[in-house]
Structure formats: C-alpha cells, structure tokens
Amino acid sequence: MASGFRTRFSLPAGICAVYLAASASPARADCQSLHVPPAPAANTTNPEAPFFIDLSGLTAAGMAPQRDPHNPHYPPAQDLPDGSVPPETASGNFVLGPAHPVAPEFAAAASAPHGRIVSFTMASGHSARFNPGIVRDDPDSCPNGAIYTARSAPGDPSDLRLTESHPGPWTRQVDVYVPAQYKPGTRAPFLVFGDGGADGIYPGRDLFAVLDVLIAGHRLPPIVAIGIGSGGQDAQGSERGREYDTASGAYAEWVEREVLPLAQQKAGITLTHDPDGRATMGVSSSGGAAFGMAWFHPDLYHRVLAYSPTLTNQQWPHNTAMPGGAWQYHSPWAGNPKATGSQPGAALIPDAPHKPIRFWFAAGDQDLFYPAPAMPDGMHDWVMASENMARVLAMKGYEYQFVLSRNAGHVDGPTIGQTLPEALLWLWQGYTPGKN
C-alpha cells in the first residue's frame, strides 16, 4: 500500500489494546461520507492465539503509532549520529536520527554530465502476461474506498473479501535513463524500479540525478535505470496490487519478457544478462515486488533496494498455498503461528537455501500500521515486517543493510533524500563489470 486512510486506534495506558476503527479517517473531502463497517475484534493480548498483533514498543504519535527502534523484540541496531548515514561498506541494522539533511550529491547533480531519458508507453492490449488488467470500482470517487468498506472472511481477517474488481485496461509510462558514459554496444548493468513513470510514487528524476553524480565521480559504473509505471490504483483488487503484492515470480517474468526488450529497442542499449549486474528497486508495494523479483528469480537479479517495502499480507485474492502473502518471506502465517517446515503457513527465507541476494531497505518509525480496518490479522505492521526481515536475513547470513529512520513516515521523502546515494553505493558493492 502506498497511501490512503489512516486507521483510528487507541493506545491506552500500558499499551494493552488496540481498537481498529469503526470508521476510517479519509484523506480526501469527497470520502467523508464513506461508511466503514465495524472491524473484527483484534487479538492484542495472546501471542499463542491466531492473528496476534504485537504492540510492544509502540506509543501514540498523532495519527500514526511510533515505534521504539530498540524494542527488545527487534534485532539489535546501531544508533547513528543525527544527520549521518551508515558506512557504505557496513552490513546490519542501523537507526537514523530525527534530522534528515539532503545528501550533497543532489546539489552536485546540476554540474554533472546528465544522462538521456527515453520514455515510451505500454498498454494492456499488447501484453501477454497482464492482459486484461484489473480495475477496482471504488465508491464516491474515493481512492481505495472499496478496501475500507470490504469485510474479511468470518474468523479469518487475513482473507479480505472484495467483489468490486473486474477486468479492465491499463496504460503505463516507462522511463529509461541512459548515463552519458554509456558506450553503445556494451552490455550495461541496470536497475529496474517500480512505481516509476509520469505518475510514479517515487520521482525517477531524483534517482537519475544521483546516478549522474555517482557515475561521473567513478563511484558507480555506468548503470542504466528503467522506471516502470504501475498498472494503476493501489493495494488489493487493483492492477498495481496484482503486480506488486503477489508473492510470485510473475512480475519479474513480465519485466524480462515484455519491458526489457522494449527498453533496449527504444533506447538503443544492450543490457547485461549477468544477474550480479542487475538490481531492482521500489517503494511500498513496489519495494516488496523488488525483493520478490530477486527471491523468485535469483537467476535474473541479485541486488535489491527498497523504501518502506510492503512485506505484509497484501496479496489478493487470498492464496491458500501462501495465505500470508509477502509476510511469509520472513514470518509464518499469523493464523497458525506454529506452522513450520513444508506446511502452507511456513516462512520462506528461514527454510530455503541461501540465495545470492544483497538487500538494502529502510522503514520509518511512524510507518504504516493496519491501514485496512477489516484486516486486524497480525500481518499489517510495516515496521515489524522489516524488523522480522532483518532478523531472518541475519540468521541466514545474507548481506543486508536495514535502516529504521526516526521522525519518518511511509516512503519518507526526507529519508530518501538523505540515504539514496549511500544506499546505491552499498547496493553495488562488489560488482565487477564486463561478464556478459
């Protein structure tokens, strides 16, 4: 989920309960009349019962809960001096201070050689994988309204029942950044990022500006960046949700077969086949998709960068083979917390052989927390998801850097402005160009 309503909740003294709202707090004036049914009762007291919501380390902070980065339930993390970022060669867990100065590379971008940008449009009618698309009918022109008026299955808040979606078309813009130093005919390393294009959540021009500076300073090789617009709308029952929140290799396969050939043709470039020279990036749901691209296809991608990745249960429709969606990368399905081994509720990373994936990711200490009232399922806490992800990555010996940013919300702009150059440099550590 990228944006939308914040759920009203109450955190009484001792933080012993959470009350998911009987009505949403709409972000737009034309959503004020939206009727949201009462949410199912939330389990906030019994960790051994299904769908437990862990409230440890939470305090009320305006409309969003604020997490203590040193909650004993989280992996240990190193506090950084306010305004600084982790070393680009370090791995592990770090906490940013509350001030987020813009990295100096942004100011230097004005004088760096600029790469060229080639844009083109894709439509569902020409797609083999995502044709037709999915369109969700939201009430009263209210974005995500159908999600907030939906109900979950009786006794199973992880299964959202949503009937307002139907086949429909999509169009999207793709932007290809080609660095000034690219030599025609050579196979370029590249980074694919979701939520790009003209209507993207993250403005590709900021990424392109940082790449201009890092490449010109020989701190990165000449990397092509490909920003792909989403298929539209947000979260469950949308084309964007279908592509990004489905925990499978489908999105990576669509990019490989339909986007990359067009990008090479339109921009006159050649892209490497070496998975170590291929990276993925995203924000929110596209951040979850970025990890899934590498997890399900390590033959294609080895490097992942994500801000506020949706490593939560946002997959729709409900899949009984993986009922927790992206939550199951790191944690068992909350409906059966004792699920292990080959059972459908088991977590993927702990039980799988180590994969050649390098992962940089960040979350805000005021990141999303149960945005859909009908789903108090123990699997919609964005910070907890990232902390759990850091824990299992460390346990399996992965190279990762996780940053929890103080004074920061979901896909926090100041945090991105502070950390993006360091994140890119960390991401590409150890890359040797020129294999294939």
Automatic annotation (TrEMBL):
Q: Quote the Pfam families the UniProt record gives.
A: Esterase (PF00756)
List the keywords (alphabetical).
Answer: Signal
- Region entry Disordered: which residue ranges? 62-90
> Which N-terminal residues, if any, form the signal peptide?
1-29
Cited InterPro entries = AB_hydrolase_fold, Esterase-like, Mycobacterial_A85_antigen
| Family matches, as PANTHER family | ENTEROCHELIN ESTERASE-RELATED (PTHR48098), IRON(III) ENTEROBACTIN ESTERASE (PTHR48098:SF3)
Q: What is this protein called?
A: Esterase
| Biological source species | Acetobacter oeni
